[in-house]
Design goal:
42% of the residues lie in helices and 10% in strands. It has three helices and three strands, in the order H-H-E-E-E-H. A three-stranded antiparallel sheet has the order 1-2-3. Helix 1 packs across helix 2.
Length: 96
Amino acid sequence: MTKAIKKLLAGMREAPTGTKFSDAVKVATYFFGEQRINSSHHIFKTPWPGDPRINLQEGETGKAKVYQIRQLILAIDKLAEIKVAPVKAGKGDKDA
């Protein structure tokens, strides 16, 4: 995991209410690959069927919706629990 992703994820865990939507998308893309966009919904595939699903929407202030950040964190934790390697997708990721 890159330092940038670690830092974003730590910030999301500490203060999910302050997470910028763009940061949430970066983290979700790193762990779950490219998104599929349906209207305002940014949907990410998970390696398991069912919940927790990854669906992100931008709130009015440019921040991600808090309950969706919590769902994203649960999904990342589940990914670590089943020991599946992250997809590491994204053109802007730089290993540091």
